[in-house]
Design a protein that fits this description.
Blueprint lengths: L4 E5 L3 H13 L3 E5 L2 H11 L3 E4 L8 H10 L8 E5 L4 H10 L3 E4 L4 H11 L1
Parallel strand pairs: 1-2, 1-3, 3-4, 4-5
Helix pairs in contact: 1-5, 2-3
């Protein structure tokens, strides 16, 4: 799988800027969304190759958005990596049950994002 376009989803503008900057500098095309509802709409329109999704967000959290994305014919093939401060075993198990392809715990070095993207490609 070739990854060229990535949707970054986070309610923190600073986190979105950091993710977008890291990925853009590495040559990826990046779209952003600030919550799960927006992520679903952007994913359906933008058709990214990968989604990096926060969990704790207003309106719709990352777990809910991932469930909706994986249940839609338009977006079910897009891999999701959760990028979150939630580091409990139950969160990781739930993420695994949702079929996420990766789980990155904040804070993280930018190279972790790039290594995860390359591992999925």
């Amino acid at each position: 799988m070739t990854i060229k376009t990535i949707l970054c989803v986070d309610d923190s503008p600073m986190e979105l800027r950091m993710l977008a900057s890291t990925l853009t500098e590495a040559g990826y095309t990046v779209a952003t969304a600030q919550n799960g509802k927006e992520a679903i709409a952007v994913a359906a329109r933008f058709k990214p190759d990968l989604i990096l999704m926060d969990v704790n967000m207003p309106e719709m959290d990352g777990f809910q958005a991932t469930r909706v994305l994986s249940g839609s014919a338009e977006t079910k093939m897009i891999p999701v990596v959760l990028v979150t401060s939630k580091d409990q075993k139950a969160d990781r198990v739930w993420a695994q049950m949702l079929g996420v392809k990766g789980y990155i715990t904040k804070p993280y070095p930018p190279q972790t994002i790039l290594d995860t993207v390359k591992a999925i490609a």
